[in-house]
């Protein structure tokens, strides 16, 4: 009891000390953050000027140099921030930059707070300054300036520049999202960006080398900040000449006089020598001259390179009395489809050719013309026998008169764009009149197809589903499985389409010329996806070839189910394994629990363990006998002692040996048991005597329990306890001897013999017999 009070005093003293210490700490809140917390955080924009205040530290205390009670400083040397002396203000000392180029992108420092007039250790407060982004960087063009070389026959809508790009160094978001545009200005109508967010330029307007050889436009890249930042660059486009122009004579017509005597020789052309040039200045193809066959052409020859006309054979005056008209053709050597015509009017001195009947130099004109010929080009000359005269030409056909017109000098001019897909040939008549006579010529113009249409698919995206049955029925067959069809067409009449597939798994599929897509089921082993993404490409056979593409998605239901089944089987096997494992665990758990229960039962039956009392039956003993047993046990010689007083109850104590205390419920128990049968015959007098004895035994039990508790208390105070292994051994021996004694007692008239064997000596120290009603009337106490 005194020990318990002693420890209670110590506990109260410790609690008071802790309470005083805590109360004192709470009173001194210097260097703690206001509102709690262990760190300080601030936000600062990257454009914050050097020297600006980032924020005020929320630290309890006054940092004033004279009257303050705390001192603040930074642990880091050369830190990007500083603390103003005598204040809690945190100021910026270097330039910030979220991109980390011109300065730090974040700041982490430690503030040291010292309590003045105190021996307390200093406090370290982490301070984190997060730098937020501002729109301080303009987009920068990559790989500028840009220069393009385009042919004049480039079709409007063609992508002429891909990959034009500008980068913004700001953090991802609106400050770094770049938009592209063509600034208004000269020639800005020729190009435009396909998408403001994509650096792809397309041609808007047709080019003409003969009118424009090059031009420059200004491009702008601008972010989405407020205000927005931008940068500009230049795009220079160089136009190359294409063979889209026919040769041209320097004069509409020429004249020459036939010698009076008709002698062979070179004729003198007026007003200048005959000459034609290629109008495609960038190409300037060489020209070859010929005379178109006519009735009078047999007398003359033209030089193929310089165009000089000569008289071959002498002619009489009667042969060309009224003069002659020659049609000269200038043809490009590299392209026979490009040519020009002119007339040479031959006269004899003194003749009156102006009075002759008007006639075209030939009755039929045939020509080939490209469908992309520009409107306004002169495509053919219709010479007559009256060159240089302003004649009137008409085209009676109402349809062709919309496509063509004829000038006063007989030049045929294109008035409306041609389209090979709508009309491949134009046949019509041209009538000419000089007011007195008329003449008619027939024209046949064959339109040459130009690849001006890109192939087009019917759908913008194709999706196909391959059923499970199609795959399972042909999994071992080499016959392809038809999974779908894509349809494509080309606006050019004579172009044919070639279809192909591209993609990671394109080798597993085939496509024919009609657009049918096939798949080989035997190749599915190399496929680990249920949905395959392909690109179908259609390319035409035009010159130059054009192509277009469309995405194709193929979902294989069979493959998905197979994979799902495989996964289900694996999951099933895994589930079986886990179930078996759980069953094993449950079985082991049950076995362990059962084993523990059996161990507890055995321990309870054997009286194992410390500090427990096992009572097998009610016993009665006098207090004097217990004291006597205790004294005798205390006088043991170290080899173990046993005291017997009638019946035996064993009390093991470690005091130089084992002490055995006999059950004091001995006297009269056997006699009562043996006399009970005889007294039952005596009637009611015996019953009264039995009740009296029962009350006496109850009093003895109470006295015995009090004595046991006293012995237990003293033994605990002196530490006289057996080790677990000794108790277990003695208990087992005692239990075995009890059983043997019970048997012997039963055989000898109910006498119970209990033998306790010392763990040290190993000999029998006590054998006691007592005439008790049962061998279970023993009380064993272990410590």
Strand content: 25-35%
Give the biggest beta sheet. 4 strands, mixed
Q: Number of helix segments?
A: 8
Q: What overall geometry do the principal axes of the alpha carbons give?
A: elongated
Low-confidence stretches: 20-25, 560-566, 605-682, 720-783
Briefly, what CATH class of the domain at 248-448? Answer: Mainly Beta
Distance between the termini: 21 Å
Summarize model confidence as the mean pLDDT: 75
InterPro entries: Cadherin-like_dom, Cadherin-like_sf, Cadherin_CS, Protocadherin/Cadherin-CA
Transmembrane segments: 570-593
Subcellular location: Membrane
Organism: Drosophila rhopaloa
Put the structure in a nutshell.
The chain has 8 helices and 47 strands. The chain is α+β, with helices and mostly antiparallel strands and 783 residues long.
Task: Record keyword descriptors for this entry.
single chain, 783 residues, alpha+beta, Immunoglobulin-like, 4-stranded mixed sheet, disordered C terminus, glycoprotein, calcium
Written account of the structure:
The protein is of the alpha+beta class and 783 residues long. Among the domains are: 101 residues, Immunoglobulin-like (Sandwich), CATH 2.60.40; 101 residues, Immunoglobulin-like (Sandwich); 201 residues, Immunoglobulin-like, CATH 2.60.40.60; 101 residues, Cadherins (Immunoglobulin-like), CATH 2.60.40.60. Helix content is 21%, strand content 32%. Strands 1-7-6-3 form a four-stranded mixed β-sheet, with no helix packed on it. Strands 9-16-15-12 form a four-stranded mixed β-sheet, with no helix packed on it. Strands 18-25-24-21 form a four-stranded mixed β-sheet, with no helix packed on it. The relative contact order is 0.05. Its main location: membrane. Keywords: Calcium, Glycoprotein, Membrane, Repeat, Signal, Transmembrane, Transmembrane helix. One of its GO terms (molecular function) is calcium ion binding.
């Amino acid at each position: 009891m005194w020990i318990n009070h002693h420890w209670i005093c110590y506990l109260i003293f410790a609690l008071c000390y802790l309470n005083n210490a805590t109360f004192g700490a709470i009173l001194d809140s210097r260097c703690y953050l206001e509102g709690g917390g262990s760190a300080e955080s601030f936000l600062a924009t990257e454009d914050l000027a050097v020297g600006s205040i980032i924020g005020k530290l929320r630290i309890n205390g006054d940092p004033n140099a004279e009257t303050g009670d705390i001192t603040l400083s930074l642990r880091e040397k050369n830190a990007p921030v500083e603390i103003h002396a005598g204040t809690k203000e945190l100021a910026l000392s270097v330039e910030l930059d979220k991109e980390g180029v011109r300065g730090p992108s974040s700041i982490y420092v430690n503030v040291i707070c010292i309590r003045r007039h105190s021996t307390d250790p200093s406090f370290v407060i982490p301070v984190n300054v997060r730098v937020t982004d501002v729109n301080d960087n303009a987009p920068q063009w990559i790989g500028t300036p840009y220069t393009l070389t385009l042919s004049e026959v480039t079709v409007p809508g063609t992508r002429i520049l891909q990959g034009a790009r500008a980068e913004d160094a700001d953090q991802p978001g609106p400050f770094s999202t770049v938009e592209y545009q063509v600034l208004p200005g000269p020639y800005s109508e020729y190009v435009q960006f396909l998408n403001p967010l994509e650096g792809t330029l397309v041609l808007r307007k047709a080019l003409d080398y003969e009118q424009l050889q090059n031009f420059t436009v200004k491009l702008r890249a601008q972010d989405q900040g407020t205000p927005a930042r931008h940068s500009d660059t230049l795009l220079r486009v160089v136009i190359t000449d294409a063979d889209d122009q026919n040769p041209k004579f320097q004069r509409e017509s020429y004249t020459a006089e036939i010698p009076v005597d008709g002698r062979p020789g070179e004729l003198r052309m007026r007003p200048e020598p005959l000459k034609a040039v290629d109008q495609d200045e960038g190409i300037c193809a060489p020209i070859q001259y010929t005379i178109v066959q006519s009735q009078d052409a047999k007398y003359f020859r033209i030089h193929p390179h310089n165009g000089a006309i000569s008289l071959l054979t002498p002619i009489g005056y009667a042969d060309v009395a009224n003069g002659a008209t020659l049609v000269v053709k200038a043809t490009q050597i590299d392209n026979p489809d490009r040519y020009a015509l002119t007339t040479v009017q031959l006269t004899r001195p003194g003749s009156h050719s102006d009075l002759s009947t008007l006639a075209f130099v030939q009755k039929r004109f045939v020509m080939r013309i490209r469908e992309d010929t520009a409107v306004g080009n002169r495509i053919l000359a219709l010479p007559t026998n009256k060159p240089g005269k302003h004649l009137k030409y008409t085209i009676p056909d109402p349809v062709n008169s919309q496509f063509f017109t004829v000038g006063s000098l007989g030049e045929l001019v294109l008035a409306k764009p041609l389209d090979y897909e709508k009309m491949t040939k134009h046949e019509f008549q041209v009538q000419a009149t000089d007011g007195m006579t008329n003449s008619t010529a027939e024209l046949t113009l064959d339109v040459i197809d130009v690849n001006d249409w890109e192939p087009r698919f019917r759908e913008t995206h194709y999706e196909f589903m391959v059923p499970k049955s199609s795959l399972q029925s042909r999994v071992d067959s080499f016959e392809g499985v038809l999974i779908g069809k894509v349809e494509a067409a080309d606006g050019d009449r004579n172009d044919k389409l070639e279809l192909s597939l591209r993609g990671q798994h394109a080798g597993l599929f085939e496509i024919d010329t009609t657009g049918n897509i096939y798949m080989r089921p035997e190749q599915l082993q190399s496929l680990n996806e249920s949905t395959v993404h392909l690109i179908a490409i259609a390319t035409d056979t035009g010159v130059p070839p054009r192509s277009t593409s469309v995405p194709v998605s193929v979902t294989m239901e069979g493959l998905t189910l197979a994979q799902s089944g495989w996964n289900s089987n694996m999951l099933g096997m895994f589930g079986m394994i886990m179930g078996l494992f759980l069953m094993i665990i449950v079985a082991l758990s049950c076995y362990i629990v059962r084993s523990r229960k059996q161990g507890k039962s055995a321990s309870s039956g054997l009286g194992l363990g410390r500090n427990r009392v096992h009572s097998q039956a009610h016993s009665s003993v006098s207090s004097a006998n217990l004291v006597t047993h205790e004294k005798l046990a205390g006088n043991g010689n170290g080899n173990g002692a046993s005291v017997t007083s009638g019946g035996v109850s064993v009390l093991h104590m470690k005091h130089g040996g084992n002490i055995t205390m006999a059950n004091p419920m001995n006297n009269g128990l056997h006699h009562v048991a043996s006399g009970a049968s005889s007294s039952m015959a005596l009637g009611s007098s015996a019953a009264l005597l039995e009740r009296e004895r029962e009350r006496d035994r109850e009093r003895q039990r109470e006295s015995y329990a009090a004595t046991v508790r006293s012995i237990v208390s003293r033994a605990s105070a002196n530490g006289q306890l057996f080790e677990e292994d000794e108790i277990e051994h003695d208990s087992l021996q005692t239990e075995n001897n009890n059983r043997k004694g019970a048997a012997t007692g039963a055989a000898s008239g109910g006498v119970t013999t209990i033998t306790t064997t010392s763990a040290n000596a190993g000999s029998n120290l006590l054998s006691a017999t007592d005439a008790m009603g049962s061998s279970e009337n023993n009380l064993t106490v272990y410590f």
